[in-house]
Amino acid sequence: MINQIALHHGMVGTVYLVGAGPGAPDLLTLRGADLLRRAGAVLYDALANDALLGWTADTAELIYVGKRAGRHALSQAEINALLRQKAYEHAIVVRLKGGDPFVFGRGGEEMAYLRQHGVPVEIVPGVSSAIAAPAAVGIPVTQRGVSRSFAVVTGHTLDDDDAPNWSALAQLDTVIVLMGVAHAGKIADRLIAAGRTPDTPAAAIQSATLPDQRQVVATLGTLAQAMAAASVGAPAVLVFGAVAQMALPTPLPAAWLLPALASGEGHFVEAM
Fold first, then answer.
1. pLDDT averaged over the chain?
2. How many separate domains does the chain show?
3. How high is the pLDDT of residue 265?
4. Cα–Cα distances in Å, from 90 out to 3, 244, 260?
5. Are 12 and 124 in a shared domain?
């Protein structure tokens, strides 16, 4: 009824950019869960746990707009336009993103687009995998006397105009790389060339906080080879710095269990 009234009077709903957290569905915020229950449409990413869709109403539109390397359901421009369209059809539209919307999630771009077109938008922060993945294996990104600084960078860009400042990063205590699995070896090479020693502790955590969570601990100079030997792949978070050697030999907890989420089944819509 609310959605029908808003549409009838030419009103526009609100788009909520919701962080889905690092993987485990029970790491979603209470605010995010409440919005999922009330949403008329949910546009969700590849890294948002599908179990979260169990919170949605039976009548909710569930639209997959995920992006994997080389496989995009929709372009970013198409996602922006779809968010705007759904805001004129529903009072509450949830854009569900893995981790936090503003940590390499292009949430800022979507917010700017929606504001430019007069669509109300609210940000609902999420637990970023940049912090949660190391924590899931016992690695603190800061530790007194060991790591007083850390940076989070993307592994997508290495040497172009958007590349990280490797010289600056090499001076920090801890470097965390998201989306860096494919370039793990090259990332290590850049940090070593910038002055980081090859024996710097390093770790890779795959599928953090999920039942199939895996990890490997090595050094900056050997991490890529260790990942290949252990078949650790994407999605994974890379950690470089002394804190990496604090990783526990098994995940914490030993097995992440998915909680039962009670709700409707929703209505899936295939994005074209």
1. 89
2. 2
3. 45
4. 5, 45, 27
5. yes
Is the pLDDT at 13 greater than 60, yes or no? yes
- In the numeric block, the tokens 């494919």 are attached to 182
Dist CA 177 CA 164 (whole Å)? 11
Claim to verify: residue 32 and residue 145 sit in the same structural domain = no
Give per-residue pLDDT as tens, 95-132: 999 999 999 999 999 999 999 999 999 999 999 999 99
The CA-CA-CA angle for residues 126, 131, 133, to 5°, reads 100
**CA gap 264, 59 in Å, rounded:** 8
Residue 253 inside a domain? The answer is: no
Residue 121 in any domain: the answer is: yes
Is the Cβ–Cβ distance between 234 and 181 less than 8 Å?
yes
Alpha helices in the chain (DSSP H): 2-8, 30-38, 76-87, 107-116, 129-136, 166-169, 184-193, 223-229
> Which residue is listed with tokens 């955590």?
205
Q: Which of the residues 45, 86, 111, 246 is marked catalytic?
A: 45
pLDDT at residue 55 is higher than 50: yes
Q: Rg of the Cα trace of the chain? A: 20
Work out the widest C-alpha separation in the chain, in whole angstroms: 64
Handedness of CA 77, 80, 84, 85 (dihedral sign): positive
Catalytic option among 26, 67, 173, 189: 67
Range of the domain at 108: 2-128+258-269
Are 13 and 83 contained in the same domain? yes
| Within a domain: 252 | no
- Where residue 170 sits, what CATH number does that domain have? 3.30.950.10
179 catalytic, yes or no? yes
Among the listed residues 111, 179, 227, 246, the single catalytic one is 179
What are the structure tokens assigned to 256, written together?
Answer: 């992440």
